[in-house]
Amino acid sequence: MILRFYSSSCVLYSMKKQGMKLHKMLNPKNKRQWYPSQTSDLNILPTLNTLTKTQRVPDNQGIRRVAVLNKLFMKHITDIMSTGTVSMDIIGRGIEISKVNVAKDFKTINIFWICKGDASDKDTDKLLQTIAGPLRHELSTLRLMGEVPYIYFVKDKQESQIVDIDKRLLQADYGEDYTPTDMGELLKSEFTLNLKLSPELKAKIKQLEDRHEIFEDPIPEMTNSVYGLDHTKIMNRLLAARKRSKDAWENLESESPVISYRTTNTSPSNIDHKEQKKEIAEFLIKRQILHNKLQRARRKQDDTHVEDEQIEETNEDIYEFCDDYDDNYAVDYISEKK
What we know:
CATH topology of the domain at 60-166: GMP Synthetase, Chain A, domain 3
CATH superfamily of the domain at 60-166: K homology (KH) domain
Shape: flat
Order of helices and strands: HHHHHEEHHEHHEEHH
Strand content: 5-15%
CATH class of the domain at 60-166: Alpha Beta
Strand order of the largest sheet: 1-2-3
Low-confidence stretches: 259-263
Largest sheet: 3 strands, mixed
Number of helices: 11
CATH architecture of the domain at 60-166: 2-Layer Sandwich
Mean pLDDT: 76
Number of strands: 5
Helix content: 55-70%
Radius of gyration: 55 Å
């Protein structure tokens, strides 16, 4: 049988605990946490800087990364649009990409394309927006980044303005007397008068030009001194040093008895091919004779070596026979005495 006893202590009858419980019963309040209030920011209207403010400002390393990514995306996007699966949709439209710009927060890629300034630009813009998704998928397979940003095709404003100006210049009215000229003819050193003059006025102008001689200013000599350095003097000193070294080599070749392997200055037309063939034949004959002599000398050395070995073997046999004879004679002599 288990007996349970209820015990009491002085903590239960503490006056402080009883006072705290009584205070909570008389003044009931919930526990509240303090949160920073944003009332000061609610009254401020959003500005252009706050709306376009990026979450982080890229440092020098981030700027370099953006520049590298721009080049990589420019290369791969043009390759995919010309040879990839996307090229089947845009073939024949003559779309030209001018530049690729990755945003500083690495969330978007703006691809700038050159428009033609006609009605086909709207259709081209719609078509490019439809291929942005497949193009992003193909770029993700190349692993250029961990996550490829969203792609947006944007018209190049500078190129579009140039196209617009060219279009307006073609439609402009320059008058009846306008004659189109080449751009190279516009660059002239002297001014010309395009007014139609009478023959009398032209004759008077010619008389005035004949009376007064026109003195042209002399053209100054061209100097080679850049940053205070006389380049002509330096080049002359270098050429003189080069000539001295060349003359020293020529004198050494003429005086030294050593065989030189340098090519001679004789032209190939002065060489007699018949004499050259004759000298080569004589050289080969002499070489064959010398080779035969060396072979004979080697054979003689081999023969003498064999004869010496045979003589040594016969001498050894004689010495062995003499030793055996002496031993047998000594044994017979001892047996006879006994």
